[in-house]
Automatic annotation (TrEMBL):
<dbReference type="InterPro" id="IPR012340">
    <property type="entry name" value="NA-bd_OB-fold"/>
</dbReference>
<dbReference type="InterPro" id="IPR002878">
    <property type="entry name" value="ChsH2_C"/>
</dbReference>
<feature type="domain" description="ChsH2 rubredoxin-like zinc ribbon">
    <location>
        <begin position="8"/>
        <end position="42"/>
    </location>
</feature>
<dbReference type="Pfam" id="PF12172">
    <property type="entry name" value="zf-ChsH2"/>
</dbReference>
<dbReference type="InterPro" id="IPR022002">
    <property type="entry name" value="ChsH2_Znr"/>
</dbReference>
<dbReference type="Pfam" id="PF01796">
    <property type="entry name" value="OB_ChsH2_C"/>
</dbReference>
<protein>
    <recommendedName>
        <fullName>DUF35 domain-containing protein</fullName>
    </recommendedName>
</protein>
<dbReference type="InterPro" id="IPR052513">
    <property type="entry name" value="Thioester_dehydratase-like"/>
</dbReference>
<feature type="domain" description="ChsH2 C-terminal OB-fold">
    <location>
        <begin position="45"/>
        <end position="108"/>
    </location>
</feature>
């Protein structure tokens, strides 16, 4: 399921699940409902739009990601309700000098070099948020 999620993300599509019992929407996909623990889930395509709820600039990256720092990690509330984590597509300076909380964003997938944790040359796809307003 996660492979499909990331492949679709590279195609610009954001996949989630909707619980057919209680209506809760989840993203990224999970095997049980966050709300009622039900397993009666339907795959749906989300709009990919949401708003930045918080973000932080990472200067000291975890092992394996050093070359990518600094980067901006953001928590976004999607229009359909779920909150997802990804990277904000702005440089560290802009993120530090402007308040980007509340900005409207669109999600897309970006493929990063796979090194330390992806020795089998699997794709490493990161959700990215592009500011659209
Ligand atoms: Zn449910």
């Amino acid at each position: 399921m996660f492979v499909e999620f990331f492949n679709e993300l590279l195609n610009g599509k954001l996949i989630g699940f909707k619980c057919l019992d209680c209506g809760t929407v989840m993203c990224p996909p999970k095997s049980t409902c966050d709300n009622c623990k039900g397993r009666n889930l339907e795959k749906i395509e989300l709009s990919g739009y949401g708003r930045v709820t918080s973000y932080t600039v990472t200067y000291v990256a975890p092992m394996g990601y050093e070359k990518e720092a600094p980067y901006v990690v953001a928590l976004v509330e999607l229009d359909e309700g779920p909150w997802i984590i990804g990277r904000l597509d702005v440089d560290a300076e802009k993120a530090e000098s402007e308040n980007l909380v509340g900005k409207r964003v669109k999600v897309y997938g970006k493929e990063f070099a796979s090194e330390l944790f992806y020795p089998n040359k699997e794709k490493r796809v990161v959700p990215m948020f592009e500011i659209v307003e």
